[in-house]
């Protein structure tokens, strides 16, 4: 089993159970390794530091309440930025956002009076997080714990339904593995209790998970491209109307 297949299997286990196996150590060569040869390997993953990534993806959104039920495909625009603090290199400040750039046509839905209508639905999401590189794993593995704030809102034709600025704190752990070719395979899970009205309740939350693969591209110089797959489920009750919203997306981005 090659290294990439092993890393993928371990990444999938990250979403179902904590890792129980420790990384195998390589046998030390008879000749003592020079420190200068080891140092770049340990620093490389942390040096995916200050970066800005922009991309596009195809997303399928569903929205269901006791009033409306619909599904929609669309083109989504995403941007993400990471800043690593100079004084405390274990900490990063992260921002990401997504927006429905182009709905693929109008979406039909049946309202509570039985009338079929057409609307266009757009979503906007914002995330701000502080990340900490935990010492539990060593290079080429990295486990990062993030805390932050999350906000999500809908734009619907003539405001016929939807939720406005569901938001709340978020817990966002990530696990990643760096390969010898400088590519990185990673995954994350996210939990966010959501503010509905003026209070938090256990029925209001967002759960999300995803996988991403960063890889260098020769024609981009030192820059990386990234392929990501994401799934999110939002359960919220605005104005006493229970809402369930899911999104499944596949995207491609480039480091700017």
Under CATH, the homologous superfamily reads: OMPT-like
Q: Give the number of helices.
A: 2
Query: Can you tell me the residue ranges where pLDDT is under 50 for at least 5 consecutive residues?
Result: 17-48
Order of helices and strands: HHEEEEEEEEEEEE
| CATH class type | Mainly Beta
The major sheet is characterized as: 10 strands, antiparallel, barrel
Q: What fraction of the residues are assigned to beta strands by DSSP? A: over 45%
The CATH architecture term is: Beta Barrel
Work out the number of β strands.
12
If you compute it from the alpha carbons, what radius of gyration comes out, rounded to the nearest whole angstrom?
A: 21 Å
| Span between termini | 34 Å
> How many domains is the backbone divided into?
1
Write down the CATH topology. Answer: Lipocalin
Q: How does the overall form come out from the CA principal axes?
A: globular
Strand order of the largest sheet: 1-2-3-6-7-8-9-10-11-12
Mean pLDDT: 81
